[in-house]
Amino acid sequence: MLQPNFLPLITFVFWSWWRLNGVVADPQINLLSQGCTPSTIFVLSNFSIFSDNVNKTFRHMRKKLVNSQNENFVTAQQANAENPVFSLFQCRNYLSVHDCVACFDAASKQIRDCPAGAQGGRAVYDGCFLRYETSAFFDQTTENFNAVSCGNQTARESTEFTSLVQQVLMNLQTTPPKRRGLFAATKAQLPENGSTIYAFAQCTETITQNGCLNCLNTGYNNILTCFPNSDGKAFAAGCFMRYSSTSFFPDNFQTIDVTPLLGKQGTSNKGAIVGGVVGGVILVLILIVLFACIRRPKCTTRVHRGDIIRATKLKGLVTYSYKDLKFATDNFSEENKLGEGGFGAVYKGTLRDGKEVAVKKLTLQHSRRIEEDFESEVMLISEVDHPNLVQLLGWCSQGRVRILVYEYMKNNSLDKFLFDGKKGYLNWKQRYDIILGIARGLTYLHEEFHVRIIHRDIKTNNILLDNDLQPRIADFGLARLLPEDKSHLSTKFAGTLGYTAPEYAIHGQLSEKVDVYSYGVVILEIITGQRSKAIKDEGDTEDEFLLPKAWKLYEKGMHLELVDKTLDPNDYDAEEVKKIIEIALLCTQAFADLRPTMSEVIGLLQNSGLLENIRPSMPLLIVTD
What we know:
The chain is of the alpha+beta class and 625 residues long. It has helices spanning 6-19, 47-67, 97-110, 158-172, 209-223, 259-262, 269-295, 305-314, 322-328, 367-381, 414-418, 428-448, 502-507, 512-528, 546-555, 574-587, 598-606; strands at 31-37, 73-78, 85-91, 120-125, 128-133, 146-150, 183-189, 196-203, 231-236, 239-244, 318-319, 337-341, 344-350, 356-362, 392-398, 401-407, 452-454, 463-465, 471-473, 480-482, 489-490, 509-510. It contains 17 helices and 22 strands.
């Protein structure tokens, strides 16, 4: 397969191997599975061109692996209409760059065993996974394939071994969806003889957190068939899981401790009975308190400081001293102030170990409200873990002082790149990636986290940019939980007019669609480089708000006039930009039920063809004089 254009790739592979000095420790190239896609799926106009496109995507991915310091996941595509190719490669996070590239070389060679005319192929190894197809498959989990490979040796003390491995994997499968990079590794010891069990789980980085969880759940069920063998691997289109009694990742590779979740081994029946009785008594007391809260309106559900301390310790947050944060921010000096809003100021801080952090000091007016906002933000964001959400590192509570400590974003907030000193810096691809990243973060909050979270204050200055200019949603001070049995909450308005959905601003009806509306306004700001508030163009006699202006231009078929003039017209596809403006208008429709969910927004962004038969209705903007 792909013989006519194979020589350039061989040359490139050899050059890269020479650059890496041929150093390969253990690329883990034990082949687990190989598959080919039949030629009936898609009609190719020219198989030679298709083969060349496959090789181009392979070369692109390999070059990215070689030039990267820690890249383990890459995709590439040659998406021309008649001979499209989509390719994906992932190696296990514990492999070195050298071993990752070596595993890629083995996979790219193996995948060519597919017969001429095959329109896709895959190769799964212990150490990596390579796949290409004629259609986009990056979001697939288990639909295309899922399988298991078991070792051929029975573990010693098989009953105890099986019991512990089952518990380890059961807890491990739920961890990657919550972690950046969608992977986790762990080690656990058998109490009888001290031997160690090693386990690892990983998802492809292009699937959702919910997709990752479902994929690993399937893998877990498959891998159970390997017991009591000492080694087992489950793999699918979107994930990989492995356990072994022999170490397969380096000793210094970062692992998580799942033993607190396993329960104490070897407890007596008496202990279980006592625990059950105590648990029953606690449950009864909780029910009594809840009943009292229902019967007595003044009963609140506020979380007290002691509860926060216990909860945040479990989540690994740091409790900082006020003295250390005062030192880090140079006594909260104006020179270190990054921004200020209605809930307090944010300062850049440098801890004594040199680590840079963002320190959010809440204002002390209306102390009860501040305490509630503080508790809300700590308890909510301490649990969330997503690449497009800012990470909370710790907190401080001393007297009436309330401080939150976040990871520091060197590039500050998105509004600086759109309206202020860095205006014109972002190209179209960077803007698109930011639009998509915000959508992924909101999808996690609305649909993939174990409870539904509504942010309530999505706007450009609450979107931070990391070193790679990827967006991180910040400021959860207004965030609210939405119970599973409710479509919306009725609550007092809090947020920013100009970004706020009409049903919330007027009637206090709060649902996920409030965030969707705000997100639509943010899209328009990213595309136009203009604030949602009143703007004035040359020739205008009066100020005009961005959203109604976008709607007027859309109705005339002139919505491309919205595009930021600092963007190079050769830098973007006009039809793609028009579609994204239409997505923004779908998100800002007056009626909440007509707005898409955030997961649907991601689908529309990634496949503009879905918009063919969808037309937005007129938006409604709520402002004040």
